[in-house]
Amino acid sequence: MKFPTTRMRRLRKSFQVRKILQETKLNPEDLIYPLYIKEELKDRQKEHIDTMPGQYRYSLEGAVGEAKRLEEAGLSSVILFGMPEHKDETGSSAYDNEGIVQNTIRRLKDETELVVVTDVCMCQYTSHGHCGIIKDDIILNDESLNYLSKIALSHAEAGADIVAPSDMMDGRVDAIRKTLDENGFFNTLIMSYAAKYASSFYAPFRDAVCSAPSFGDRKTHQMSPYNINEAIREVDLDIKEGADIIMVKPALPYLDIIKEVKREFKIPTAAYQVSGEYSMLMAGIEAGYLTDESIYESLISIKRAGADLIITYFAPKILKEDVEYKC
Ligand code: PBG
Known about the structure:
Blueprint: H1 15-20, E1 31-38, E2 46-48, E3 56-58, H2 60-72, E4 77-83, H3 100-111, E5 115-120, E6 133-135, E7 138-140, H4 141-158, E8 162-165, H5 172-182, E9 189-196, H6 203-209, H7 229-241, E10 245-249, H8 255-265, E11 269-273, H9 275-286, H10 292-305, E12 309-312, H11 315-320
Parallel strand pairs: 1-3, 1-4, 1-12, 4-5, 5-8, 8-9, 9-10, 10-11, 11-12
Antiparallel strand pairs: 2-3, 6-7
Helix pairs in contact: 2-3, 3-4, 4-5, 7-8, 8-10
The structure holds ligand PBG.
C-alpha cells in the first residue's frame, strides 16, 4: 500500500500517538553509574574532574552518600573504580582486602540494595600504569592472570555482585571463573569487557583516575577500531570461558559492533558510554550548541543498537534532573 492510502505522518500526528508507538524505551534499570573512589580523600571530600564537567572523585563516605541519593532517584546499579594511595609494580592495592574498592563494596552492600559491579584491572594500581605485569617493557599475559583472579576474588569476598574484567588479557574470564568457583563464589557474575577497543575516547578517564601508561600504549591488548570480525571472536571466546554479560566499549562510535554482537549471541549485552563520549556531549551543551535532549538521544541510540545495559556518566542527570527526549 502506498501514498495516499499509506501516510507515515499519521503515526506522528500527536505527542500521545508518538508516545504509544515508541519502539525503544530507556528504563532507569538499564543504567549503570561509574563511581570513582579516591583513597586519599577523607570524610565527604570530593574533587571535581575538570576533563569531565559535573563528575567527581569521591571519598569512600562521599561515594556511599552519592550512591544512596541515586538509589532514591531510581538507580539500580553502580560500577566502582578505585584510586589507591599506594601503587607498585604488581598493583598490590588492587587485591588488598582492606583496599578502597573492597571497603566501598562492603559499605554499599550493607547500606543499599544496589547491584554492585567492580572494574577488575591493574592500571590504576600499578606504578607503570599498565593493565598487567611488565617485564622488559612487555605486558605478560599469563603472569597477569593470577593477579586479575586475585583482584576479582577479593571483590567477590567483599560482596560484589558482578566483577568486570577490563584488562583484555587472553584467558582472563576463564581464570577468574575458575578462581571464583574454587572459592565458592558460583553466584558472582562476570561481565567481561569483551570487545574493548584501543580508543582515544578514554582520555578524560585516564586523566581523571591517573591511569595513563608511563610508556607505550594499550594497542597490544585492546582492539583495533578497524575490526569487526575480531570483536565477534573476542565475544565468542569470553562467552565460552564463562562470561555472563558481555560488553562493547566505547558505545557511540561502535554501535555497529553492539548490533552485530547482540544479533549473533543473544546474550545480555552492556555498552560503555565512555568518558570521552560524555565530555564531548557536555562540551557541546556547555557551549550552547547542543541541549540535554542530545544526551537522551545518544542513550536511546545505544539501546536501539541492542544494548541491555548502559554504563553512563549521565545516569544522575537522567534520574535526578529528569532529562528526556520529548518525542
Ligand atoms: C581500564 C579501564 C579504562 C576505562 C574503564 N576501565 C581505561 C583504559 O582502558 O585505559 C575507560 C572508561 C572511560 O573512559 O570512561 N581499567
